[in-house]
Predict the 3D structure of the following.
Amino acid sequence: MKVLRKRVNNYFKENNISKNNNANMIFKTFFMLALYIVPYVFILTLNLSTITVLLLWALVGFGMAGIGLSIMHDANHNAYSKNKNTNKWVGYFLNIVGGYDLNWRIQHNVLHHTYTNIIGMDEDVDAGMILRFTKDQNLKSYHKLQHIYAWFLYGLLTISWLLSKDFIQLFKYNKKGLLKSQGISFPNALISLIFWKCIYVFFILVLPTLVTGNLGVNIAGFFVMEFIAGFFLSTVFLCAHIVDQTEFPKPDSDGVISKNWYVHQLETTANFSNTKSFFSWFIGGLNYQIEHHLFPNICHVHYHDISKIVKKTAEEYNLPYHASNTFMSALKHHYLHLKEMRN
């Protein structure tokens, strides 16, 4: 919508502010990195009880989620900074928390933002056969319990990335020719992937065990950290798309989406908890998912302000603007959708 783009652009011009980071974003970057690194350093250097070590690993997990939601997400959308190299290096933060930036950009930027909520094309909402998100997916007997077991699976998200998903995706993206769109060959991508995975495993599992000599506690801490990060990342994302408020459209017979792209994003995306709270600050403004989808190249620190423009424009054109008042209500909408899709 030209009207919406013009209004948002005017907001930045009239207030003489950049669409990229600001002092708040710089502070958040150091905060999230500290939340991830400082507890880890304490684990390595202090003689602590098992409970204290596990609590520190839990903090590392929150830091891991914070880096994913609040920092690398903007960088890999080229929204963190005007400088491409800055975005590139900050985007690598995903790799130090066990992911792989190349795969993420293809899955999220290319597929999810283009084919939002279209099962079979949007990999961000594809849970395979284990969860059923739309009526178009095959119904299995175990789906009757998905509203119960799904919550445990969400905590395994980042472990899946680490052990299998990134490798499977890399081979698949190579076959589809998507690696070329990122300007990298398959051999180089595979070497890079293995390198980053080895670095992550060494620092998260091998080094703590060598230093502390306690493999059992570190393995337990690893699962605590990964489960917290995985659960946080999964639920924040799913509450923005897989809820009983949003739509799951099908492409035309030739695979083309004929509907206006802006309208498509409004129909398939939902906001929640739209306030300037610590929660919103911590999750990188992704509770303003509508604004993010419409303007992915704008840093999330501006979402709260431009959301007023987006909502007003949507109402003027009689377009949907899905929103839940709180995160808990958004979780309820996700839960209800899981129940609806079990039959």
